[in-house]
Design a protein that fits this description.
Blueprint: E1 3-7, E2 10-12, E3 18-25, E4 34-39, E5 46-51, E6 58-60, E7 68-73, E8 78-83, E9 92-98, E10 102-103, E11 107-111
Parallel strand pairs: 2-11
Antiparallel strand pairs: 1-3, 3-8, 4-5, 4-9, 5-6, 7-8, 9-10, 9-11
């Protein structure tokens, strides 16, 4: 049974940091391209970042470039998203995605003073 379980979301003040985690099970995590997406209330889901299978190559949406860092630990079957310098517009539910097939349930991030 495939599972992607996100954690680490919460309420943070503007300028703060959070680290999201996504624990994977039920499939060969190290063989899959992994991404983070987010969806704000009333908006479509948008791509945030992607990392290749080895963790040696990453790509980011312009809106998060320089502030967010995606990484993975294939030994722990876990994907991460380090988010720094958070802005109110980063408020969303964040999802991990094993491309192209599997999605997690999401973790809420709220950036507010």
């Amino acid at each position: 049974q495939v599972q992607l379980v996100e954690s680490g979301g919460g309420l943070v003040q503007p300028g703060g940091s959070l680290r999201l985690s996504c624990a994977a099970s039920g499939f060969t995590f190290s063989s899959w391209l992994m991404s983070w997406y987010r969806q704000a209330p009333g908006k479509e889901r948008e791509w945030v970042a992607t990392i290749n299978t080895l963790g040696s190559s990453t790509d980011y949406a312009d809106s998060v470039k320089g502030r967010f860092t995606v990484s993975r630990d294939n030994a722990k079957n876990t994907l991460y998203l380090q988010m720094n310098s958070l802005k109110p517009e980063d408020t969303s539910v964040y999802f991990c995605h094993a491309r192209p097939r599997y999605w997690g349930q999401g973790t809420q991030v709220i950036v507010s003073s």
